[in-house]
Amino acid sequence: MCHRVAEPGVDPWSLCVTPQHFAEHLEVLQRETAPISLQKMVQAYKEGNIPARAVAVTFDDGYADNLHSAKPLLEQYNVPATVFVPSGYVGHGREFWWDELERILLQPGPLPERLTLNINGKTYQWELGDAGDDLQNQTHQYCGVNDDLLANHIQRGSLYFSVHRLLQPLSDAQRNKVTDYCR
Questions:
Q1: DSSP class of 132
Q2: How many Å apart are CA 81 and CA 73, to the nearest integer?
Q3: Using CA atoms, how far apart are residues 27 and 18, in angstroms rounded to an integer?
Q4: Do residues 108 and 138 make contact, with C-beta atoms less than 8 angstroms apart?
């Protein structure tokens, strides 16, 4: 099960695998397993006749890089794959809420010294202090340039995961209200 084949900048959930690493995965799958489509896997299961070493590759969430980065590699290694596309996001012009939250809170750019959010009728407040300062276009995944920058990454990361936990059980409309406010 895969999500993304891309060069991650910020990847708090470790959803990305680089194209080079994905190619290495496919090489191992070709050498050590018998890749088949998910449809063939399901049919073989129903018939009680799953081939030895059978593997079905799937992608969750339908990110564009599944088409642009993964598909050419899958074709090169002759490995079939199934992409699950969440129909609720097709054609509405918004990114996934967790990606939007990541872009707002973890990408370089200033944040307020104090962030106050009304989430589902309750007010939450975070004191960000210097962590709200612009991170001078440094990527958060590979932090450690200096202690101040590292401290900002940790505080922003903590903020991201705190807000994520609060938004996760909400409806899309409630989440959109919060992320619209944060923009």
A1: G
A2: 11
A3: 14
A4: yes
Q: Above 70 in pLDDT, residue 105?
A: yes
Q: Which of 58, 85, 112 is the last residue of a domain?
A: 85
Is residue 16 within 8 A of residue 3, CB to CB? The reply is yes
State how far the Cα of 136 lies from the Cα of 45, in Å rounded to an integer: 53
Q: CA angle, 73 as apex, 16 and 28 as ends, to 5°?
A: 80
Burial class (CB in 10 A: 0-12, 13-18, 19+), 102: buried
One domain, residues 80 and 111 = no
Whether 90 maps to a domain, the answer reads no
Stretch 117-130: mean pLDDT, rounded? 89
Cβ neighbors of 86 (< 8 A, separation 6 or more) are: 61, 62
Q: Is the pTM of this model over 0.70?
A: yes
Please count the helices (runs of H) and the strands (runs of E) in the chain: 7, 8
Q: How confident is the model at residue 134 (pLDDT cuts 50, 70, 90)?
A: low
> How far apart, in Å, are the Cα atoms of 79 and each of 30, 50, 72, 121?
8, 17, 10, 48
Residue listed under structure tokens 């018998």: 34
Range of the domain at 101: 97-182
